[in-house]
Specification:
Layout (H helix, E strand, L loop, with lengths): L1 H17 L18 E7 L2 E4 L2 E7 L5 E7 L8 E6 L7 E6 L4 E6 L6 E2 L2 E9 L3 E8 L4 E9 L1
Length: 151
């Protein structure tokens, strides 16, 4: 009887370890050197070339990518910000809209940011570097021909 109880205890212990809730983890994110990001775009037809840019991939339960590019005072302190929520380290198209997980902002002279109402970010390379293109529209600005590369 003691053997049977001990055996049942061992079996139930084994099932309890086996049935523990194990979250599926995303693959390891690429290591992106955020101090080496190139950005180019046209904003309402005018050239936007960043003087500083950041690209970070945050490793959380719901990973996300944040990309920010700014110009210097010679270009009126323009800023482009893009955030892709629920980012799963995959090349592809991420559509910008009021209801999507991808958002974009544009500001000029440190003013209130204009929120994009439509557009797209295409991640084309994702290994030890991240490269892509983007475009979007706000109520006041149209951002086209956007390119970025983080190596």
């Amino acid at each position: 009887m003691k053997r049977l109880l001990f055996l049942l205890f061992i079996v139930s212990l084994g099932f309890s370890f086996y049935s523990c809730d194990k979250k599926k983890k995303d693959p390891i994110a690429p290591q992106v050197a955020t101090d080496s990001v190139y950005t180019y775009a046209l904003v309402n037809g005018e050239t936007f070339t960043s003087s500083t840019s950041d690209l970070n991939i945050y490793h959380t339960d719901e990973p996300y990518l944040v990309f920010t590019a700014e110009t210097g005072p010679d270009q009126n302190h323009k800023k482009i910000s893009i955030r892709i929520d629920d980012f799963h380290y995959q090349p592809g198209d991420y559509y910008i809209s009021d209801t999507s997980n991808t958002k974009a902002l544009f500001s000029k002279n440190d003013s209130v940011s204009d929120v994009a109402t439509s557009g797209m970010v295409r991640i084309s390379v994702l290994d030890k570097s991240v490269r892509g293109t983007f475009y979007f529209s706000t109520d006041n600005y149209t951002v086209t021909d956007g390119k970025f590369a983080a190596q």
